[in-house]
Specification:
alpha/beta, Rossmann fold, five-stranded parallel sheet, two-stranded antiparallel ribbon, binds flavin mononucleotide
Length: 179
């Protein structure tokens, strides 16, 4: 199973990127591709600019990456209760190619932050709109207090309850393959 993972953030040291990648490793036999949103630099979306330049290559490339995957794991960074500007911008551009950005792929949504809220607001927002954007959502997990539950040396979540939630989410994706 080809799993595409990314953190919905353009931070080089994105904790969400790390969480998405780790969760993919919990799917036995997964072939994992990790996207870095820093590689999908785009001007701020506007309908006027879209009329002028059409669909930028970076938006098309992002959309194509999702299309080529069997499943997708996204972990959302929370900025002021919502999506990071970098992700929202890329998503807006991609949604103009096709509103079903997730292309009916089996999907797991995650979110994490250094604080106790675990980026729960942005995760609730992503969950609430998943069906409009073609995400076949199998699980959604928020991980609170990231730096307390993640071992940076091994790249693994070590806290039992977070690990159990992520394992359950990974299992839901894996079941997809045998179903
Ligand atoms: C502009 C800005 C706003 C933020 N707002 C929130 C917030 O609303 N809730 C939260 O839990 N963390 C917030 N944070 C902290 C982020 O959770 C933290 O920077 C985290 O590392 C972002 O994820 P990333 O490392 O994947 O980019 C904010 C950070 C920034 C820079």
């Amino acid at each position: 199973m080809k799993i595409l993972t990314f953190g919905a953030s353009n931070s080089k040291a994105s904790i969400n990127k790390a969480l998405a990648q780790f969760t993919a490793t919990l799917v036995a036999g997964a072939e994992i591709e990790v996207l870095d949103l820093g590689d999908y630099d785009l001007p701020i979306f506007s309908e006027d600019l879209e009329k002028e330049i059409g669909q930028p290559a970076a938006a098309k490339a992002f959309f194509k990456k999702i299309g080529a995957a069997d499943a997708v794991i996204v972990s959302f960074a929370e900025h002021n209760g919502s999506y990071s500007a970098a992700y929202k911008n890329l998503f807006d551009w991609a949604s103009r190619i096709d509103q079903k950005v997730f292309q009916n792929k089996p999907t797991v949504f995650l979110a994490t932050s250094p604080g106790p809220g675990g980026a729960g607001s942005v995760l609730a927002s992503a969950k609430g709109s998943a069906r409009f954007f073609g995400a076949d959502l199998k699980a959604a997990v928020s991980v609170a207090n990231f730096y307390d539950v993640f071992d940076a040396e091994t790249g693994r979540i070590t806290e039992a309850s977070a690990l159990a939630d992520l394992t359950e989410a990974a299992t839901a994706l894996a079941l997809q393959e045998v179903a």
